[in-house]
Structure formats: C-alpha cells, structure tokens
Amino acid sequence: KARVPVSIEVVPFETYMCEAPSTTVVTNRAEMLGYYEQMYTMRRMELGADALYKSKHIRGFCHLYDGQEAVCVGMEAALTWKDSIITAYRDHCYQLSRGDTPATIFAELMGRATGCAKGKGGSMHMYMAKNNFFGGNGIVGAQQPLGAGLAFAHLYRGDGGVAFALYGDGAANQGQLFEGMNMAALWKLPIVFVCENNQYGMGTAKARSSANTDYYKRGVYIAGLKVDGMSVLAVRQAVAFAADRCRAGNGPFVLEMDTYRYHGHSMSDPGVTYRDREEVSGVRRARDPVEGLKNLLLKHNLATPEEIKALETRTRKEMDVAVEAAKKDPAPPLSELYKDVYCRQSPDMFIRGADLASSHGSVDWAPGS
Amino acid sequence: TTMTVRDALNSAIDDEMARDGDVFILGEEVAQYQGAYKITKGLWEKYGDKRVIDTPITEAGFAGIAIGAAFHKLRPICEFMTFNFSMQAIDHILNSAGKMYYMSGGQFKVPIVFRGPNGAAAGVAAQHSQCFAAWFGHCPGLKVVAPYSAEDARGLLKAAIRDDNPVVFLENEMLYGMEFPISADVLDKDFMLPIGKAKIEREGTDVTIVSYSRGVHKALEAAEELAAQGVSCEVINLRTIRPLDRGTIVKSIMKTNRVVTVEEGWPQSGIGAEIGAVVYESEAFDYLDAPLERVTGADVPMPYAENLETLALPQKSNIISAVQRVCYRK
C-alpha cells in the first residue's frame, strides 16, 4: 500500500527559455508521509530555536526557515547526497536534510562542544562535509560563485554530481551572482542557481530592491523556471527537471522558488514594520506548505488524521528531547579556541592570545620582561 | 647555474601540475595569452583547457569558484593578474577561504594558492602600486608567503601548492626577470622550502635588517655598501609573512642589538610595525642598543612622475641612513 503510485497535480510552472516539466507528479504514501515528517520536524525545530532564542539560550544572529520548508524537502527529494548544496545563513533545515540531527543542530545554536561545528560556527555556519553540504554562509552573495566552484569540481572529476546554490531575493542582486552565472554558462558547469524568493531581503520588499522581480529570468542566457515554492511536489518536480538538464551537460539552470518566511529576517526583527500581520496570516491560511501537504495526504487518502496526529505528537516529543539533551551538553573546552585555525596545525604552534601571557603553544624565544 | 624568478615560478607550477591531477590554474590571461607576465607560459599547451583556464575579468566570481572547487578537494592555483585586483575578491580570500576550516569545526580544508605580482612595479601609479602583505598578513587562517629569490620562488610555491591551507603568495613584478644562482637540489621535483621559516641571507654582527620580497634585494645592496663603511649587517629574508618566524628575528636582534625593517608597503599597521611589536614583546627588547627604525613606502598613494615615485619607495640610501642612525654613526 505504501508504494502504490498516486498522481497529484501541481500549479503550472512559469518557464524561461525551456519547456515546462509535467504538472502531474507521481508519488506514493511512503514518500508523502516522509516529506510530511521532514517538513513538520523542520517547522518544530525552528519553533524550538525561536523559544531558545527568546530564553537567551541562543546568542547573536538567528535566521529561521519556517514557511520555506517545502523548498528544502522538495529539493532533497529529487537529489542524492552525491549532489552538493550550499546556502546562505538560513541554514538549519539544510543541515537537517543533509543528515544531521536536531540535537546536534540545537547544540550548535547554543554554542556547545557537541554542535555540528564544535560550537564555533553557530546559527549561520553549519556544515555536513561527508554529505556534501557546504554551509551555512554569512556573506550575502558569496555562496553563489562558491556553488559554481562546487559544480566545477563535479565537472572536473566527471562524477555526475550537480551543485545547488541557494540565495534569497535579496542576494539575487549581488554582482557576484552574475559573475558566477557568466562563467557557469561559459564552462557549462552543472549548477542550479536556486533563488528562494521569500519576498523580502531583510525588510526590503522585492519590488523595492529588484528592477526585475522575475528572478527565474535573470540568468538572461540561462534557462529557468518559476516554481510554487510552497508545494513540496512542485519543487521536487522542478529540481529533478533542472538536475537532469545539468547532468546531461547543458550547463547551468535557474530556479525561482516562490515562497514566504513567517519569521522576521532574524530574531531581532519582529517583521511587522515593512509588512502587515494580515499578509503573514493570509499566507498561513492560504499557502502554508506544511498544512498544504497535510491536506494532500488526507485528500488522497494517503494517511488518516489519527496517523498524522500521532506523527506530530511523536515529532514534538523528539524535539523536546533534543532541546533538553543539547541544553545539558558542555560548552567547548577553552583549548578549542586555538584549534583548527590551520589544518595540520602543530599542537604547539604559537598563537597569540588576548594578551601575550595567555598565548597558546610554545616559542623558542622568551617574552619580554 | 642560474634561474630567473619567472622560470622558478613556472617550473614550480609545471612540476606540481604534473605530479597531481587535482592541481589546476585559473585566472585572467593565464592560458592562450600565456600569462600577463608569462608565469604560465607553455602550461596551456601542455595541460590543455581543462587545467589551464582563462577567466573573464571577474575577480570576485573566479576567486569564489576556485575556493568552491577547493571545498570539493581540488587544488586550485588562482592567479590575480596583480594583487591590486585581489581587493575585488578579498572577501572570498578571507571569509570563504581563510575562515572555513575554523568555522566548520575542522570539516573543510581549503587547499588553494592565490598568487600574482604584489607591490609597486614601475610607472603604473596609485591604483596599480600597492603592497598587500600587511592586509593579508593580518588574517588568521591564511598563510602569506613573499619570496625574494628564484630558490624562494620555486621552493615556496611548491610548498604552497602542496599545503592544505589557503596560501596567499605575493610575487613581485620587478623580481620576475632577475637571475639568481641556484644549486642542483633546487631543481629536484620535490624541492620545497618550509612555509613559516625565515632565511638569513647575509650574516652580520652590528645590525639586523629585516625585509621580504624586493626589499631584501635593496637591503642586500645596502649591506654591501655598509660593509665598506665597516658596518656588518645581518639581512633576514622573511620569506613568510604569516606565520611570522619571530624566533629568527628575535635571535638575530639579541646578537646585533639593533634592527631596521624594510618594506615597500605603507607604514601604518605594516609589517615593520608588527616586527616592532614582536621586539617589544620579546626578550629582544632588553638587548636593543637603539630604537627600531622602519624604512617603508611613503604614506601617500603612489604618484606617477618618476622622481616622485622614487621618493615614495624605500631606496638603498634610506636603508643606509637608517642603519647609520641606529648604529649612532650619524
């Protein structure tokens, strides 16, 4: 029963210099329940991070992904971990989708030794090297040429991998994107530039930042699709289509994911001065990706309300357990400050501390008297 | 036998590309044009389009692509036509390459070399005449190398390419054509010099002159003339700006009790200023018989007119008079 094919219609794609993928997506109960579990987990994980931030367990910047879950889950559904992903600072859910656990992610958010970057990265710098997730970048616009470099390596090795570089509608205006697109097109790099258009770059609405808000057309000489980024199935369909084109040697592709973030830009932004509450609640009512998927599960008789309820209860409990576990984890040892500045760093390499007396390592000269 | 710095660099890249198929070079005009300064001459014919890659004039973009490829375990050599243009890409060099290993908790190595001519050439005015040793030397996570001789260039570039860390490799256009004697072992396929170790180019007893890159050449010329005046100079060629070989500097000063630094970069927060801090923070301070003197580029943008350009750069005469002052001979 779990594998019986089910056909579901998605919203048509808008195309630029290419044909459209089919709007009929074939899936099954097992896949759909899996997507729901992942998306619900992400939603709860980000709400958990929200609570931890408000209780001052998380410091600094913290950018949450709730509202955009269908993009991450739909993308991963079409890929394997041989393909590479790089994103910006809204990265917690990609870390999860690339095989990390909520406990490790919470630990990183709280700066614990057990975090995915040993507590030294924080919210914006999460990585999963073994599964080809390259972070987690705090500089808006840097990740697009870096992603093209990942694609360069796939092509150089001929390993069949495709790179996905994610950026928001804000980062879509960085000059580096166009530099990366130009070289990707010249060199036929297997890269998909994925614009997660959540309508605002920080507090600036897209029409106030972008002379052309059709982000899927902004590769100019690169084909693109605009995708309903609130539909996990539409995203999956579009990503599979784009990845196939790249694997066939056609060079880069652009995907615009039409999506929305419920939280402000970061935890310091209540998100109400540049948009009104009605807009946010309107999206929640009409387009919420998690609710939308739940409705599809019920409508196509792929799950019962009781099953979904049980899944949600279980996930919430798992998230609570992960939060409590991470809270108990230790802070990094102070010696960690001086580790990993360089790779193959000798254990006694001299690294100056905040004052000379607190420096690390040894020297063959004596400090001044 | 002798070798130019240009041939030393070219042969180092050639050796390492032959040795490791993951090494490739990209940059403006590195392939068909044979390199703006001919450092990559002949490599395109030998290794082809896949490994010798002409880029468009987009430093931020191609530096980013090179670093992304290094994240994925390739070993790029990213040539900047000159380091003046690396400012377009300095965010990537520092934030994407220099910090990646640390902020990923040791998950990602970034084995990349950024190289090209650095510092003032001749008659190219303000925007094309600048030393970036202090800029890059400021940043933990980067290694910064500045060769002087052909031996330095060959041994350090081969070491930089084999290093798993990002290395900023600062060459100097004025040294490219200069011939240096080399010994047979320098030509060995596995000849490398250790990054992080300075070289005493000339031993002496009265004063230590610390410099790097083209400054070493001027320091050696000054030392020769000073020897005729009865002043024995010890000349240290730093070779590496970061990690800085403090030990060699400190020990030399403890021997000579006097120190002059020489660099073409600007004085404020420069390499000489850093060496001053090393002296004050080490036992060398107690051995000083005179305050440290810095010889640096003048604190102005580089002018075009030849007489002004000469005045803006440290000359042999500046070094000689600084040495005479710290030796109380003037």
Automatic annotation (TrEMBL), chain A:
Its cofactor is thiamine diphosphate. GO terms for biological process: pyruvate decarboxylation to acetyl-CoA. Its EC number is 1.2.4.1. It catalyses: N(6)-[(R)-lipoyl]-L-lysyl-[protein] + pyruvate + H(+) = N(6)-[(R)-S(8)-acetyldihydrolipoyl]-L-lysyl-[protein] + CO2. It is an enzyme of class 1 (oxidoreductase). Belongs to the 2-oxoacid dehydrogenase family. The pyruvate dehydrogenase complex catalyzes the overall conversion of pyruvate to acetyl-CoA and CO(2). This is Pyruvate dehydrogenase E1 component subunit alpha. The chain holds residues 69 to 437 of 437 of the full protein.
